[in-house]
Amino acid sequence: MHITRGFTGRPRVDDPGLPPGQYDAGDDWPVLSAEVTPDLAPADWTFRVDGLVDAPRTWDWEEAHRLPPSAYEGAVHCVTSWSKFGVRFSGVSLDAFLDVVRPHGSATHAVAYSHTGYTTNLPLADLTGGRAWIAWEYDGRPLAPEHGGPARLLVPHLYFWKSAKWIAGLRLLDHEEPGFWEQNGYHGRGNPWEEQRYSGD
Amino acid sequence: MTDTFVPPTRFAVPGRIAVGEQAAAVWQTATLTEIRRETPRAATFRLAVPGWPGHLPGQHLMVRLTAEDGYAAQRHYSIASAPDDSGHIELTLDHVEGGEVSGWFHTVARVGDRVEVRGPVSGFFAWPGDRPALLIGAGSGVVPLMSMVRHHRARNLTVPLRLVVSARSPEELIYAREFGAETTPVFTRAAPEGVPVGRMAAAHVAPLLAERPPGGWEAYVCGSNSFAEHASRLLVTAGQPVDRVRIERFG
Question: Locate the FAD-binding FR-type domain: which residues (chain B) (predicted)?
């Protein structure tokens, strides 16, 4: 660590909700996707779970909305160092989808993929136990296309690149398969509290 | 399930290059060797980085500033300079209102100061100079694109390269003196005599897509999110394949 001459930084509030190296973006919600925002209507949206499961299944918009609703209220953290507090997403807990497809005991990881083709990998344990959602509303309104609408994955305890926008499916695997940013040097898991930004952190 | 997973649609243009784990993980001390004013709001900061592993045009790095009480702030910045053997890299930073890191660079930093950097990171937006490149930027979004233009010149590359860059006025056009025949500037608020004022439009983009080189263009878009949305739509509407548009949005 090298002290930077004359750098004092913003006035600090000791916020226990702010992971190391992050700042509070306040009302801003930066958009950081590498691809063209797709034109994806709810009627064309589908979500599939397959791979190491007993009963692979695809849900359409109406079918997914018949699952029990679930909401998340809290913070999200982007690897580019902004965090956003007090966000309110609603949708369905991923557990509700997994209960239907019944993952095999051998399933340890998942690749989440988007309708654009974006991919990201996650340990299955990060997607279960009420810690991950398929979200379609933000602050009580339909999720905006540039933020992943009509529906995105939400895994708020990991860096936000894991929360794939325009989510199309999950494939359960018995090994880790790096996704889009992970192949570009980013960390396999991405825990903000351990600053797992890049591969090797 | 040992086959490599294939995504269902075409995007996911794979990363252009692999990023070394070592380069991405290690913080290095960089020394500020020069500050050049570009526009009233933007300046270029030249850094000597003795252990710099090299980069490709379009890649970025992370900068970390640390206060005396241990508080650290880090930001991603695009690299402005072309790869060379000088042991230096350049960043061009806008002075963002209330910017914690850019504010330090613009108001405190002087030659001889040291900061920490790590990188280069992300191979997605990189352009090694191998394919025709259509570059579209606005404001300081021109920074990674300029690294590509400079690379093209330094290596005397013959692969087609075009740059369309939007700025509010000629005074705010970063690198104005460096642009050549490859560049079309677009001015949104004030323009030189005889040059129309207005937003980047289909008329700027369509002729470039019409002169489609063999193999087609790789498009690189960089700017604010609203600009990136607008420009990427113009490209796709004009016929650029959606899976050959790479976007770097300022967050």
Answer: 25-127
ipTM of the complex: 0.88
Instruction: Measure the CA–CA gap between A28 and B120, rounded to whole angstroms.
Output: 27
Whether residue B120 is preceded by a cis peptide bond, meaning omega within 30 degrees of 0, is: yes
pTM: 0.92
Distance CA A7, CA B105 (A): 9
Q: Are B188 and B167 in contact (CB under 8 A)?
A: yes
> Which of residues 62 through 121 in chain B touch A, CB cutoff 8 A?
62, 65-68, 70-76, 100, 104, 108-109, 113-116, 118, 121
Sign of CA dihedral B215, B140, A34, B24: positive
Report yes or no: A198 at the B interface, CB cutoff 8 Å. yes
Instruction: Specify whether the CB–CB gap between B95 and B39 falls below 8 A.
Output: no
Q: What is the pLDDT of residues A42-95, one digit of tens each?
A: 999 999 999 999 999 999 999 999 999 999 999 999 998 999 999 999 999 999
Half-sphere exposure of A130 (CA within 13 A, CB side): 6
